[in-house]
């Protein structure tokens, strides 16, 4: 049985005729790391809120752990872990108290939480900060604490909304490491992100969302194979010359505001052609195609904000 | 599997608030809460009281007349303090309650919990101030002990009002309007003189105020003038609080669904 | 200094209606509830006049004093702290002294407007007997507000946490507000407390306002009160010049 099954899932907010989620279907299996990718406003967060059982679907069907979230929302929430985008930690309490109090909200005993909090602090590498007020923590520490907090009830599913947005590279890598450990321990991860490298690092399977719909679904490799070539040549030209260069070059070329992307299985071959037709790019770079290229293909030329 | 917290986890909101305040013992908290009413009791009850001859129709020193009113006001203010600004900040800026949505806590439980906490704060204030009144020798009847539980009704009524107000506030400045209502109510709801000084139509207005009933109840008990009328006062507070609680519950449910 | 004042006036454009309502409503409520309501229970005269007449000028001084503390204390601390208005201002050719002066002028203006509203309400109660009483009482109340304002601003600019302001307000301003001969005569207090009250600024402000309002002012006492309050204002400005400079030029 899939842990999560969605069919024709919709979300409309009262007072608007616009559908934040306009009918999507997907399944998440036990032990998977499943990602939602998409530009801002694609409907990722709305979907996550429905999965967290805090927002009711306006249409379609949704089953979480085999249950209907509308009927059993409260009991289901007790079995989920949620890492919200804005941490929402209790600023007036210390690091350890945040964990303990949060556990109590789940109906866990104080005694149990005293032991559990020590374990979680260790996991989040925050043991030496246990007595400190949350206000004094860095962004990365806060996010690790939020993740630790989401684990108080040993959740079967962990929902993470943009887990590394706003963190510096070091903090991101520490966080990825922790999430990877969770995954190895068998926790099902569901996350949203607009970092392609994050999706490639963490997700076994992902869906790309755009305008409330699923644009495509698959493993990162599958998506790359399906939508883009093996390699990409990035070319930069002085402002204003891009369009002409693209026309002159022909082939599978994507025009971005700041550069041209030429898709090909052999990038160097294209680069040779560039010089042959007499183009003089400011910079040229051949690289492997990434999810970002898939993303740009499927959701429009640039990140819409 | 753990069992889901009872009553939507209301008691856990209280527990969390206790933790936040654990630096201060209940008695330092009470000291802070009774400080202002003591000043008023000294200035108006004792100071101005020395100028007052007899309160028409009431056979007690002026300070003994004012003290139970200040008790009701102090408990009201404690409840309001804990439910207006504090809760608004947690609701809007800290997004504290939103962070609880993903737990098995319910919105009703959160509202009930904050109200319970406000009542607990008021209780501490009430006990503290009653002790002060007793120390001043202003207790006139054993019924005065009942003024504190009666004050809990006051705390319930105004705490529920505060939670509703916090739900509807559009910014910190919104609470100025609350002040704009509270100050005249404090001054006119027979805190400092009996309702008989008013002409007939003003009297009707004053008797419509919730604080008037809170004071009547408190004063009636403290002065030992116990009669069935007090039940009406209590009923008013229960109904007012009940309506406000329903308003707060509905409003919070809407806010949390966003 | 005028430029710094202009800034505050500019901001005030948006909120002045509300504050005018409050500055008229407050005296009206207190005069009605305490002066007239509670006063109706007071037997005989206080210091030779009916209670309302005794109470009104004291309340006027107390309100000016309290509003000045709130405006100067919380206003200055916010401008320096959360809003960082001052830091922005001293990045321009404005000096810390001008920044302080501008803000103090604004506080003085607000105190004046509040006092004006109060005296008008008093006149409606028939408590102002002539134009000269109207003017002198208005000026006296304004002085009662300005005197602490500078000192409070000089201190508030160094304060970074609001709870400290609240503590001072509760434990210093509130007792002064209630016991400086505002609600009842200082002479009712025990002798030791009386002496303390005589040493505090609000008693001087209240006595100044009351003696002018009731026509019982003597040149000697009036001079003493004005000198006391004036000296306090000057001291505040001198200290403020130092603290503002220290805090803003770091």
TrEMBL record, chain B:
It comes from Herbidospora galbida. Keywords: Antibiotic resistance, Cell membrane, Membrane, Transmembrane, Transmembrane helix, Transport. GO terms for biological process: response to antibiotic. The chain crosses the membrane at residues 38-56, 62-80, 115-137, 143-165, 177-195, 230-248. Residues 28-255 form the ABC transmembrane type-2 domain. It is found in: Cell membrane; Membrane. It is a multi-pass membrane protein. It holds the Pfam family ABC2_membrane. Belongs to the ABC-2 integral membrane protein family. The keyword Amino-acid biosynthesis does not apply. GO terms for cellular component: ATP-binding cassette (ABC) transporter complex. One of its GO terms (molecular function) is ABC-type transporter activity. It comes from the Bacteria. InterPro entries: ABC2_TM, ABC2_TM_bact-type, ABC_2_transport, Nod_factor_ABC_transporter. This is Transport permease protein.
UniProtKB/TrEMBL annotation, chain C:
Residues 18-247 form the ABC transmembrane type-2 domain. It is a multi-pass membrane protein. GO terms for molecular function: ABC-type transporter activity. Signal peptide: none annotated. The chain crosses the membrane at residues 20-42, 54-77, 104-128, 134-156, 168-186, 223-244. Its main location: membrane. It is found in: Cell membrane; Membrane. InterPro entries: ABC2_TM (IPR013525), ABC2_TM_bact-type (IPR047817), ABC_2_transport (IPR000412), Nod_factor_ABC_transporter (IPR051784). GO terms for biological process: response to antibiotic. Pfam families: ABC2_membrane. The keyword Cell membrane applies. GO terms for cellular component: ATP-binding cassette (ABC) transporter complex. Belongs to the ABC-2 integral membrane protein family. This is Transport permease protein.
């Amino acid at each position: 049985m899939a842990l999560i099954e969605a069919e024709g899932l919709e979300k409309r907010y009262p007072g608007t005729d616009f559908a934040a989620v306009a009918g999507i279907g997907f399944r998440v299996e036990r032990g998977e790391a499943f990602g939602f990718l998409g530009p801002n406003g694609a409907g990722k967060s709305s979907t996550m809120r429905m999965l967290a059982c805090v927002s009711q679907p306006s249409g379609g069907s949704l089953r979480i752990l085999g249950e209907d979230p509308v009927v059993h929302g409260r009991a289901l929430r007790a079995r989920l872990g949620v890492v919200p985008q804005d941490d929402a930690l209790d600023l007036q309490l210390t690091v350890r108290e945040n964990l303990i109090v949060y556990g109590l909200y789940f109906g866990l005993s104080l005694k149990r939480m005293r032991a559990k909090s020590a374990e979680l602090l260790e996991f989040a590498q925050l043991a030496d900060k246990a007595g400190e007020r949350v206000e004094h923590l860095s962004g990365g520490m806060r996010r690790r604490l939020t993740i630790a907090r989401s684990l108080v009830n040993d959740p079967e599913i962990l929902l993470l909304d943009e887990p590394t947005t706003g963190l510096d590279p070091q903090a991101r890598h520490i966080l990825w490491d922790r999430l990877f450990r969770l995954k190895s321990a068998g926790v099902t991860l569901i996350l949203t992100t607009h970092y392609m490298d994050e999706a490639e690092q963490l997700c076994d399977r992902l869906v790309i969302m755009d305008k409330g719909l699923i644009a495509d679904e698959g493993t990162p490799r599958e998506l790359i194979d399906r939508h883009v070539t093996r390699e990409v040549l990035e070319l930069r030209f002085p402002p204003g010359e891009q369009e002409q260069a693209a026309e002159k070059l022909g082939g599978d070329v994507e025009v971005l505001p700041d550069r041209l992307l030429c898709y090909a299985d052999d990038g160097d071959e294209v680069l040779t052609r560039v010089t042959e037709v007499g183009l003089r790019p400011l910079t040229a770079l051949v690289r492997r195609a990434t999810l970002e290229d898939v993303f740009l293909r499927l959701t429009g030329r640039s990140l819409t904000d | 599997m753990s069992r889901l917290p009872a009553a939507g986890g209301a008691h856990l909101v209280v527990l969390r608030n206790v933790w936040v305040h654990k630096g201060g013992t209940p008695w330092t908290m009470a000291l802070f809460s009774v400080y202002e009413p003591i000043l008023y009791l000294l200035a108006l009850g004792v100071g101005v009281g020395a100028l007052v001859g007899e309160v028409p129709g009431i056979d007690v020193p002026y300070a003994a007349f004012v003290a139970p009113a200040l008790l009701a006001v102090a408990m009201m203010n404690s409840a309001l303090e804990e439910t207006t600004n504090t809760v608004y900040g947690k609701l809007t800026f800290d997004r504290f309650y939103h962070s609880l949505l993903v737990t098995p806590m319910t919105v009703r439980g959160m509202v009930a919990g904050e109200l319970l906490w406000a009542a607990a704060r008021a209780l501490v204030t009430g006990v503290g101030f009653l002790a002060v009144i007793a120390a001043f020798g202003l207790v006139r009847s054993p019924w005065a002990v009942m003024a504190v539980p009666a004050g809990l009704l006051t705390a319930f009524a105004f705490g529920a009002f505060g939670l509703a107000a916090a739900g509807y506030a559009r910014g910190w400045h919104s609470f100025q309007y609350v002040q704009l209502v509270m100050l005249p109510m404090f001054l006119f709801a027979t805190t400092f003189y009996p309702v008989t000084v008013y002409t007939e139509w003003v009297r009707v207005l004053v008797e419509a105020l919730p604080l008037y009933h809170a004071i009547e109840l408190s004063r009636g008990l403290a002065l030992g003038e116990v009669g069935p009328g007090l039940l009406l006062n209590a009923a008013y507070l229960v109904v007012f609080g009940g309506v406000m609680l329903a308003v707060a519950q509905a409003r919070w449910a809407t806010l949390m669904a966003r | 200094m005028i430029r710094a004042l202009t800034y505050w006036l500019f901001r005030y454009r948006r909120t002045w209606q509300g504050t005018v309502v409050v500055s008229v409503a407050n005296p009206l409520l207190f005069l009605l509830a305490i002066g007239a309501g509670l006063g109706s229970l007071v037997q005989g005269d206080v210091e030779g006049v009916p209670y309302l007449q005794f109470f009104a000028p004291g309340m006027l001084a107390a309100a000016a004093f309290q509003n000045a503390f709130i405006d100067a204390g919380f206003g200055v601390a916010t401008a320096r702290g959360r809003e960082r208005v001052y830091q922005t201002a001293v990045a321009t050719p404005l000096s810390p002294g001008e920044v302080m002066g501008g803000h103090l002028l604004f506080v003085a203006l607000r105190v004046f407007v509040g006092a004006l509203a109060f005296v008008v309400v008093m006149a409606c109660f028939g408590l102002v007997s002539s134009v000269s009483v109207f003017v002198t009482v208005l000026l006296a109340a304004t002085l009662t507000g300005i005197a602490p304002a500078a000192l409070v601003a000089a201190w508030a600019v160094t304060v970074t946490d609001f709870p400290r302001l609240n503590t001072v307000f509760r434990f210093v301003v509130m007792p002064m507000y209630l016991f400086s001969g505002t609600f009842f005569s200082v002479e009712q207090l025990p002798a030791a407390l009386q002496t303390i009250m005589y040493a505090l600024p609000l008693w001087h402000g209240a006595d100044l306002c009351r003696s002018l309002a009731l026509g019982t002012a003597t040149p000697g006492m009036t001079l003493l009160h004005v000198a006391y309050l004036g000296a306090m204002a000057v001291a505040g400005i001198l200290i403020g010049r130092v603290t503002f400079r220290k805090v803003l030029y770091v």
